[in-house]
Amino acid sequence: MSVPLIDVQNLNIQFHTGEGLITAVDDVSFRLNPGEILGIVGESGSGKSVTAKALMQLNAGNAVIGEKTKLLLHHQGAQIDIAKLRKPKELLIARGGAISMIFQEPMASFAPAITIGAQMVEQLRIHAKMTKAEAKAISIDMLNRVGISEAPKRFDQYAFELSGGMRQRAMIAMALSTNPALLIADEPTTALDVTIQAQVIDLMKDLVRDFGMAIIFITHDLGVIAQTADRVAVMYLGRIVETGPVRDVIRNPQHPYTIGLLNALPKLDNLDAPLTPVPGDIPSPLERPLGCVFNTRCPQVIAGRCEGNVPQLHNLTDDHAVACFAKEPVPA
Q: Of 197, 215, 273, 292, whose CB neighbour count within 10 A is largest?
């Protein structure tokens, strides 16, 4: 078996709040290989962003990571457990070094009073020993590579002077300038119109091909995942409920939640068909259901079992797994 780029084992994250300790991510495990795109999908509050931010230790200071959690990064022949990094200098490998992140709203990433170029140069000089002139040349080249016209001019502009799609490309360029092995994309297309959204998706596919990097693509939209990812992990209230190759999961969904998400998508072959939302609302983490976390909304709930027991992921095929009692194989 090849060594994965990222090996997440038993990720548990809780947050201290004024109302007590709440669970945001519960026993999540997955692997990601170099050059692979993993889509993480689910409703708001399902733990997607908290999971991804853990790989860079970007969750709030009141976050508590489980003692058994391992966040293993295999990079340049070394194995690093990101969960054990503490000092700012140590964290550079996970914050802009081997791992970079792009966000839904670029204006949250760019300082409004500093030019885009100055921010790119500063980041490069933090992570590599180079002159300002060298960092500027790399930054302009990267702006060119992500399809920004008149890159030298854009280098000296502020984020508010660019269109939404151009700001998104500039943020991607800044994230890629340090040549990361993993790019985390947190809802990068949600705020864009469909034309720019398609361009960003195509750009990310090109980046995988040209740079050989891996991508974690976080979204609530299975339609975007279908166009982008190699594998998908469906999350609900902090747990992975189904995972597998994206085509297998979309063509043959097994978990009731995955089926519900797909049924909620518009059907282009039948525009008169009503949308079927997943019934109910995702519970508050403060009111986390016992047993299977989806049992309060599940149309296939097994009375007396789902309310008191937690289903574990089990393989349906070699690489398609589901956590659902209704899908467990019947004993011979």
A: 292
> Which residues on adjacent β-strands are paired with residue 272?
none
Contacts (Cβ under 8 Å, ≥6 apart) of 80:
72, 73, 93, 94
Phi, psi of 297 (to 5 degrees): -125, 5
Closest to 286 measured CA to CA, from 10, 12, 17, 13: 17
Reported as a single tens digit per residue, the pLDDT across 56-88 is 999 978 899 999 999 999 998 899 999 999 998
pLDDT digits (tens, 9 = 90+) for 140-199: 999 998 888 899 999 999 999 998 888 888 988 888 888 899 999 988 877 667 777 777
Checking 7-11 for CB contacts under 8 A at 24+ apart, the result is 7/31, 7/70, 7/72, 7/74, 8/51, 8/55, 8/70, 8/71, 8/72, 9/68, 9/69, 9/70, 9/71, 9/72, 10/66, 10/68, 10/69, 10/70, 11/51, 11/54, 11/65, 11/66, 11/69, 11/71
What are the structure tokens assigned to 277, written together? 């939302």
* Dist. CA 179–CA 173, nearest whole Å: 10
Asked if 258 and 243 count as a contact pair (C-beta separation under 8 A), the reply is no
* 319: Cα separation from own chain's centroid: 20
**Residues 46 and 237: beta-carbon distance below 8 Å:** yes
Phi, psi of 200 (to 5 degrees): -65, -40
DSSP lists the bridge partners of residue 28 as 11
- Give the other-Cβ count within 10 Å of 307's Cβ: 14
State both tokens at 323: 């956590």
Q: How far is CA 232 from CA 6, 185, 278, in A?
A: 15, 14, 19
pLDDT digits (tens, 9 = 90+) for 302-319: 999 999 999 999 999 889
Q: 41: which 2 tokens?
A: 């999908």
* 12, 26 Cβ separation under 8 angstroms: yes
CB hemisphere CA count around 224 (13 angstroms): 28
